[in-house]
Amino acid sequence: MTSEKTRIKYQTDGMLLRESISDPLLKRYNVIILDEAHERTLHTDVLFGIIKSAQTQRKRRKLHPLKIIVMSATMDVDHFSQYFNNAPVYYLEGRQYSVQIMYTIKEQEDYVFTALVTVFQIHQYEPEGDILVFCTGQEEIESMAKAVRETSSQLPFDCPPLIVFPLYAALPSAHQLKVFQPVAKGSRKVIFSTNIAETSITIPGIKYVVDTGMVKARTYHPGSGLDLLKVQKISKAQAWQRAGRAGREMSGVCYRLYTKQEYESLKEHSIPEIQRCNLASMILQLLAIGIKDVEHFDFMDKPSPETVSSALLQLQLLSAVQKEDSCWKLTSQGKQMALFPLEPRFAKVIFMSKEFGCTEEILTIISLLSVESVIFVPSKKRETAVEVHKKFQSNEGDHIMLMNIYKSFKNVKGNKKWCTDNFVHHRNLLMAVEVRKQLSELCKHVGIPLKSCGQDTARVRKCLAYGLFLNAAELQREGGYNTLDTRQRVAIHPSSCLFMNKPAYVVFTELIQTSKCYMRYLSIVDPDWLLEAAPNYFRQKRLYKVN
After folding, report:
1. Which of 51, 69, 199, 394 is deepest in the core (most CB within 10 A)?
2. pLDDT higher than threshold 70 for residue 543
3. 499 neighbors 488 (Cβ within 8 angstroms)
4. φ, ψ for residue 412 (rounded to 5)?
5. Helix axes 426-446, 359-369, angle to 10 degrees
6. In angstroms, rounded to a whole number, what is the distance separating the alpha carbons of residues 15 and 28?
7. For residue 133, what is the enclosing H or E element?
8. What is the helix (H) or strand (E) element at residue 31, kind and residue range?
9. In 3D, which of 25, 18, 15 has the Cα closest to residue 65?
10. Is the entire prediction scored with pTM above 0.70?
11. How far is it, in rounded angstroms, from Cα 409 to Cα 406?
């Protein structure tokens, strides 16, 4: 949507980062505004370093100066100012109504139960005004929403109706929009939301906020190589963001389901994503931009040397980098992998698809893994949805199941009613179609022919093994699974179509830590494929012998 006449351009941090690969000095821009800087996403933290460097170099070369404006409601201003060469700090008065903060008298063992009790106490004893409850994820939200619906039907006759709305990223857009619509006079809205409602959106009518004090965040363990989604405590900055939601349109109340003492023990700010995630993708981008000494890049908060080393080792195993004269450099394949806006392992899978003649199928799978889940299981129709989804399932695994959903979607020409009837997300599938188009264009650009393997889906699984071999697990004698590289105990997620099966070897896309460490999006693989994919790596590990 831009042209030579464009004066203001809105874009994601990831888009600007990709632009910096071809233009490290960002010469197209006079001013760059980075909003919501406190969120400290991986892309934003890398951008800080690139933009700071571009500003310095442009000044040194006497080019047009670059003005940088960093904005946030809750950032650590001294830390940011110091990083940007003691930049001046400006405070702007916001339009915030007063918010009363309430803490629990004693520590709560079960925040879910406490949140439900608090919702009904507010509903029965507080005057009108809608309620926003912060939860950690979809499953928790659906179970809490169901509990409130069931309990509210048993409230006294004179109690006004309580209308329940869930809100999370994977919810279909039509359902998400319902939270913004007013309810009938005399009724009250209660919204159960993830941290999507912390800063991204403002919901009208909110007077009461219930803050569970918990959030689901991604954490990476370089020693084990595991990238986990895990429930953890929020920071003070997040607590204030949540409280602020109660004072957007009127004076409000925030009920914190933790004691004042517990609040004081929270970290001031959330740990930046760069210090708690896999850095392989980011390092590949930095090398592509031309930054040679990635280990000493000017980050605002430096990641641990162990995390950087682990990322470089992964890239080396994926044949993306090599060491020359004590410097890390991109291989020819690494340069091409950096062109794809994907995790390096997915870019590797696409490059291997040329060898296995299954690029069409691989692009479909990677596109679907790059968007929010296309599968929707509403709590009220769970059994029906599970039954309907069976027609897409494959005994080869979830990746082939995703492919089957996409094929069916294309066969009905993206029909919206078909999506509703089959409990799949229309919007997310349309997004996957767009992602796939972009990836197809990139494949043509780097000379990867768009071939299909037809019904020979074993080739697809073999291709996946070549990029996901670091995420492989082996069935143990007692029926559980261990990851191949670190012997981490893992299990197949109940949502997987392989949940009732016990395949000997699988590769998986991600791990989620709840009551157990679950593998999500799996495919059955042959152990010989893994050995072919990374012979030296698996021989060093001595993980198994191939008969």
Report:
1. 51
2. no
3. no
4. -95, 15
5. 130
6. 14
7. strand 130-134
8. strand 31-34
9. 25
10. yes
11. 5
